[in-house]
Amino acid sequence: MAIEAEKLKTLLERAFPDAILELDDMLGDADHYGLTITSSVFKGLNRVKRHQAVYKALGSLMGNELHALSIRAYTPQEKEQK
User: Fold this and answer.
1) Checking phi first, is residue 36 left (phi over 0); if not, alpha (psi -120 to 50) or beta?
2) What is the pLDDT of residues 46-80, one digit of tens each?
3) Domain ranges of the chain
4) How far apart are CA 33 and CA 52, in angstroms?
5) Which CATH architecture has domain 5-81?
6) Do 71 and 51 meet the contact criterion of CB atoms below 8 Å apart?
7) Bridge-based pairing state of the strands 20-25 and 32-38
8) CA distance to 7, 8, 28, 31, 66, per residue, from 43 (Å)
């Protein structure tokens, strides 16, 4: 099972219209990705809620076409501080 990075980006951009996305195919297998996502949607949400929002945006892909996703989710203000 695999999923193209562009499909992931499209789904995430729909859910987080202001998002800045950095997506890395960690193993080159289109099955294990690292995601850094910056969006104002995350303001006031803790890490668990941010991850849940990302998983919701990806729907049934998790565990099916997408085996693993490492998520780093920031607000624009947090990202500026990094």
Assistant:
1) beta
2) 999 999 999 999 999 988 889 899 999 999 999 99
3) 5-81
4) 16
5) 2-Layer Sandwich (3.30)
6) yes
7) antiparallel
8) 25, 22, 32, 29, 26
